[in-house]
Amino acid sequence: MDNAVAFVQAFLRLRGYLTVTEFPVIRRARHGGHEALTDLDVLAFRFAGASGEIAASGKSRSSSGEDVLGGAQDQADMIIGEVKEGRAELNAAATDPEVLAAALERFGCCKGHGTDDVVTELLRHGRAQTHVGHAVRLVAFGSRPPGIPDRRCRVVLLGDVVRELQDHILAHWDAMRASASKDPGFSVLLTLQKAIQGTARP
Fold first, then answer.
1. CA distances to 96, 129, 181, 185, 200 from 188, in Å
2. Rounded to an integer, what is the distance from CA 190 to the centroid of its chain?
3. In 64, 109, 189, 195, which residue has its Cα 20 to 30 A from 36's Cα atom?
């Protein structure tokens, strides 16, 4: 798992999402056997009403005051995320209907229950609703905004991701400094903050 994916995973977990990273999408090959299509950087699911550990006041917001991640709190939410260290953009695999259908059938909805319609809606608007009523969204994470705006996805900058994680650590420092984390992204930031606090002591 690279650092950018690790930070995004920690960010989503703190917001109440269950996550799977670098999920392999495999299909049957034409002449027998199987072949890998791609790896999806992050799949995340949050149940309706799940608040996570980040209070509304602690969530990163855009210049307009909107929560950077979005998503209705009272609706189950599934994210198919692409993570880049450069521009926040979707690659070809993340917009491949076959790849999206495989992700939905594995985590979001079942084959034969409108998967094709959900995929079509996702590729048009970056958001859709399954037959069971939960939202599915495409989200691109990256250090910089995309070169060309893309209505197929929501954009979240890694700067906002890391800032929110750091703010959470500082807001709960009394508990954090005595703890360890097995989450790869969160543990890096926690260790850095412990080092900074250690050098600041008289």
1. 33, 35, 9, 5, 19
2. 20
3. 109
Distance from C-alpha of 188 to C-alpha of 182, rounded to nearest angstrom = 10
Domains of the chain: which residue ranges? 3-159
Decide if 171 contacts 186 (C-beta within 8 A).
no
What was the pLDDT predicted at 27? 73
pLDDT at 202 over 60: no
pTM: 0.87
Instruction: Summarize pLDDT for 86-115 with one digit per residue, the tens.
Output: 999 998 888 999 899 888 888 766 666 788
User: What's the N-to-C CA distance of the chain in angstroms?
Assistant: 37
Q: Quickly list DSSP for 144-178.
A: B--SS--TTSEEEEHHHHHHHHHHHHHHTHHHHTT
